[in-house]
Amino acid sequence: MGFVELLEAASMPVIQVLLISALGAFMATQYFNNLLSSDFRKSLNKVVFFIFTPSLVFSSFAKSVSLQDMISWWFMPVNVGLTFLIGGILGWILVKLLKPNLKVEGLIVAACSSGNMGNLPIVIIPAICDEKGGPFGARDVCHSHALSYASFSMALGGIFIWTYTYQTIRSSSTRFKALEATQIIKAPNKDLEGNADTPLLRGKDDENTTIEVTPLSYIEDSENQIIVEQDRFIVLKKENHSFLARMIEVLRDLVVELMSPPAIATFFGFLFGAVAWLRNLLIGDNAPLSVIQDTLVLLGNGTIPCITLLLGGNLTQGLKSSSVKPLTLISIIITRLFVLPLIGLFIVKAAANLGVLPVDPLFQYTLVMQYAMPPAMNISTMAQLFDVGNEECSVILLWTYSAAAIALTAWSTFLLWLLSY
């Protein structure tokens, strides 16, 4: 496979993302009468979260992955988990070294840990099979396997993105808004200073305290506190420091996150893909409920363009005023697109040498490419949902996806050469 062909296969999906993002940015300007306004973007993000993404995950997983495939591909869930774990550790190290603004800390960890396991692999990996002289065998067989690997990767990525990454962004948002509101409370306020009876905080500081505050007031987060924002109340609860209590709290949060629509769709996609008679209800020309699958596919097709348009819409303000420093961008790009894939290559080769991987070079190629993908675009959706770091997130994604055109090409070229021998 020549370098020019490989460059085209690897860079075209990223170029498409950049073009659609540019269209979204243009739609958010006065030239399109501010079609992608801030309020509209927030509403569209909710549609993506509750409708489009679950439809895409379920329809792809239920159609492309069977029970036999899941059993033979048992290492892929481990591999995806390692990408998030190792990437999260690297992101945490960057945060400690760079000491960025609190608003950006969660984005850095999310960008380093959460790769695009969905639309890019579905486009890039099958495209490699279309090139002549590849090491992956006959085109039709390769293409079918590639779609299955990519669909499985997308479903697995959805679990981690909407649990681990979702929790990371939410936690960062809570801490940032608490700090921001604390600064507001400390600022001089003539109305409050002139009325000594105006309560900012009211309640006792006992074991389990509920404190009523004004709508703009927050309590600063600390290691032994949980802050729950409501319309006029903040619940401040001191937690037991025991290991068991902390584990129960973590498990409770995990269960809550697993109830998100994309995670639920992943579970049912797994169920319908694994159970033959359920699969036959939806999949196939003679399936009695095939119209449901067709409808979900139609809805799922709206996920990628909507997310990408939203990314471009958020970019309009990100280019004008962003607190992301060039050193931070360079560090994220190097960590996400070069350091993490290098670590992943050693992990996959070690697993192959131990004989725990299927005898399929395309499977190994997919595993390594999972480490090399740019950050998940759903990070932008989460930043919009929690209203934290929207501009910074847009800039991070813009530069990482731009750099991914080179990085993905380089890794694809190296892996194709490596797997050919």
UniProtKB/TrEMBL annotation:
A Pfam family of this chain: Mem_trans
Keywords assigned: Auxin signaling pathway, Endoplasmic reticulum, Membrane, Transmembrane, Transmembrane helix, Transport
Membrane topology: Multi-pass membrane protein
Annotated GO biological process: auxin-activated signaling pathway; endoplasmic reticulum to cytosol auxin transport
InterPro entries: Mem_transp_PIN-like (IPR004776), PILS1/3/4/5/7 (IPR045033)
Bilayer-spanning residue ranges: 12-32, 44-62, 74-95, 107-128, 148-166, 254-276, 296-315, 327-348, 396-419
Reported function: Involved in cellular auxin homeostasis by regulating auxin metabolism. Regulates intracellular auxin accumulation at the endoplasmic reticulum and thus auxin availability for nuclear auxin signaling.
Family, similarity comment: Belongs to the auxin efflux carrier (TC 2.A.69.2) family.
Name of the protein this chain belongs to: Auxin efflux carrier family protein
